[in-house]
Specification:
With 109 residues, the protein is mostly helical. It has helices spanning 14-19, 22-43, 59-88. The protein has one domain (14-106). Helices cover 53% and strands 0% of the residues. α2 (22-43) runs antiparallel to α3. The N and C termini lie far apart (58 Å).
Length: 109
């Protein structure tokens, strides 16, 4: 049985980027991770087959397994960061209560 493939989350909008501009770079990194996982699985489908774990004589496949685990872990960390930033900047949060509803709301013209 194959592992569930990570999916790309929704990209942050302008207001979300106003409050946490680092989310742009993290969204780009996350998209790269998701595509890298898909590419590695396509190039080396045997690494996810039960009972087909690479042996010590297969250094490329061992590296692929390590890359997949690291990419999935980083994907989950980015998702956790994004969820926490979303929680901290939501409309009913004390921090977000001072925020303009959109970037245009603070413009006098």
């Amino acid at each position: 049985m194959s592992r569930r493939e990570p999916t790309l989350r929704r990209l942050p909008d302008e207001t979300e980027l106003y409050w946490a501009p680092e989310r742009a770079a993290l969204a780009a990194l996350d998209a790269s991770l998701v595509l890298s996982i898909r590419a590695l699985k396509a190039a080396h489908p045997m690494v996810e087959e039960p009972g087909e774990a690479p042996g010590s004589g297969e250094p490329l496949l061992l590296l692929v397994v390590s890359l997949l685990a690291t990419a999935r872990s980083l994907h989950e960390l980015i998702a956790g960061y994004d969820d926490l930033v979303e929680y901290l900047t939501r409309v009913d949060s004390p921090v977000a209560a001072r925020a303009p509803r959109s970037l245009d709301d603070d413009m006098p013209f």
